[in-house]
Amino acid sequence: MGETLYTTTAQSQKPEQVNLARHFAELLHGCYVERGNRSIETLLHELGTDMLLVCGERVTLYRDKQEFFFHPSMAVVRIKRLLSGDHDVLIEQSGVQPGDTVVDCTLGLGADAIVFSHAVGKTGRVIGVEANPILAALVRYGMQTEVTTIPEVDAAMRRIHVHQGDHWAFLQSLPDRSVDIVYFDPMFRKTVQDSASIAPLRVIAERAPLRMEAIEEAKRVARKAVVLKERRKSGEFQRLGFPPPERRSGSVTYAKIELT
């Protein structure tokens, strides 16, 4: 990861926070430090770093004087709409069904994976693949602990399996036609650059463009479809061998390679 990741607790330093901070330090090959009464700013200065993971009431990443913590964000709104009988563009365009197995190759903050998990239900499965170890750890922990006002959102989060690693390598490890849908949202790298709310992720988030080899592996692994979310005029659909998007309106759209 380059620089050392330091972990600590809130100033109250409850035993469970100490245990969690030590867990993250071990998981991410970082270093646990006692918080004491020091402020975040003081601790960062004394450690000579600009990145700190604080395990308090929630797990928060501090980076470049900004902070980030996991939240299901728009997944809550989207699932509420589905529960009220409305449609969701991703679910509609992907063709996902209850009981399906979905691999989200670009997990990011996990909003799409949560909506997929709700759609496939208890009999389905969603695997989210995230390349960056810090982001994967934060999202994995958040998926298992975050509580919202919507029980269906909480249940959907708990069912997601987060795999940390390169999505191409992960796809190569899967048998032929072993999942139903493989999904890519490389737009996350652009979102990270543009959004102030997740600015601490700019240095750690994966920003490399999708490889054609990964798309080929996805086609081998999927039974139903490979789905790509992108900006309509990005040129990525054509570069990666996807048909023109069916949904023409809006700057963001989806295309899929159907395999059945």
Automatic annotation (TrEMBL):
InterPro entries: 16SrRNA_methylTrfase_J (IPR007536), SAM-dependent_MTases_sf (IPR029063). One of its GO terms (molecular function) is rRNA (guanine-N2-)-methyltransferase activity. It holds the Pfam family SAM_MT. It comes from the Bacteria. Transmembrane segments: none annotated. This is SAM-dependent methyltransferase. The gene is ypiP.
